[in-house]
UniProtKB/TrEMBL annotation:
One Pfam family here: AdoHcyase_NAD
EC number from the UniProt entry: 3.13.2.1
Metabolic or biological pathway, per its Swiss-Prot or TrEMBL entry: Amino-acid biosynthesis; L-homocysteine biosynthesis; L-homocysteine from S-adenosyl-L-homocysteine: step 1/1
UniProt gene name: ahcY_1
Binding-site positions, substrate: T53, D125, E150, K180, D184
Every S-adenosyl-L-homocysteine hydrolase NAD binding domain range: 185-347
Protein's recorded name: Adenosylhomocysteinase
Organism per entry: Actinoallomurus spadix
Sequence similarity: Belongs to the adenosylhomocysteinase family.
General function of this protein: May play a key role in the regulation of the intracellular concentration of adenosylhomocysteine.
Cofactor: NAD(+)
Amino acid sequence: MTYDIADPGLAESGVRRIEWADRSMPVLRRIRERFAAERPLDGLRVAACMHVTTETANLIRTLQAGGAEVALAASNPLSTQDDTAAALVHEYGAAVFARQGIDRDGYYRHIHQALQIAPDLVLDDGCDLVNILHTERLDLLDGVRGGCEETTTGVIRLHQMAREGALRFPMVAVNDTDTKHMFDNRYGTGQSTLDGIVRATNTLLAGKTIVIAGFGYCGRGLAERARGMGGRVVVTEIDPVKALDAVLQGYRVLPMAQAAEHGDVFITVTGNRDVIRGEHLARMKDGAILANSGHFDVEIDVRALADLAVDVHRGVRPQADEYVLADGRRLVLLAEGRLVNLAAAEGHPAAVMDMSFADQALTCGWLVGQTLLPGVYDVPKEIDTEVAGLKLASMDVELDALTPGQEEYLSSWRQGS
């Protein structure tokens, strides 16, 4: 088995942390037990490009229990936990290609190394692995049965590929299933992003004006939690429906050009590029904090920030760089503009990733038995419902059941009021 990790000596620490996360992942644990008995992935090779965290490690263990051989590359250089990578290699037998803080060339080299497994299935977080398959490793395309995409940014790119007729195998948009985006995006991103900002800056959010760019599920979760911590929340949006939703929830909605003058903390969660640009940076107040929780490091124009600066103080705090402008104002960029919740904190709580990775595991098992044309597919509703039911059961929550009369009423149009 080949691999590229930072320090094999960290494996023991990694095992302890993986097992700690596993305690909060009862749904995935039950699926792992089922996979071990049924072996739905027996003999299959899986290439994954995902955040190398303790939660991901428990997904990899579940796929292995189902019979899969797994190769894993990191989907973000700053989110890799080196002890988790070491444990996956030396304790759990996965081929891992990930080092914390690796440069751009190393990042793409690791994806290529993971693809050397010649995958039957792929798991992606941001569509970089799928992109490389379609641009540089076309020789492997015919062997890929399908795969899953974990994040909004990746799903956007997959739909673009499908519209252009470029996508060569079926991909399931795991991000779009309710037990993923309603909980992972909203509760996970909402909590972990603020966690990362506070760890990196030790700032008090109460009383601050917090500008949130994008009011999808991630933006809603952030706004709820920022307001709950005493922040004055301003939302920027391009979608009239989402903007109206924000207004009716009591948030102030402004264009970024106006919000730039008021914000103390700026958080981007759009999936698009150049959301905060040079003209916005030029209007910001001294000490403004810039954080990104969208997938790629393109939402804040870091080059424009560097061009405006006359000096840069690197590492004024862990994952915080201070850019000094010509007029003396200081803007603080967190995590180099990358995912602040994973670079400056530990990402989503394991209890949330339990559902997202349960969706991933069950969808992999479902894909094996399907014959699908190339395209982007939704997670089957029964998988979504099963994951939600398992999560509720793990929380000792019981539901009502329809009576026969209620079922008949709902299934017939002949009964009036």
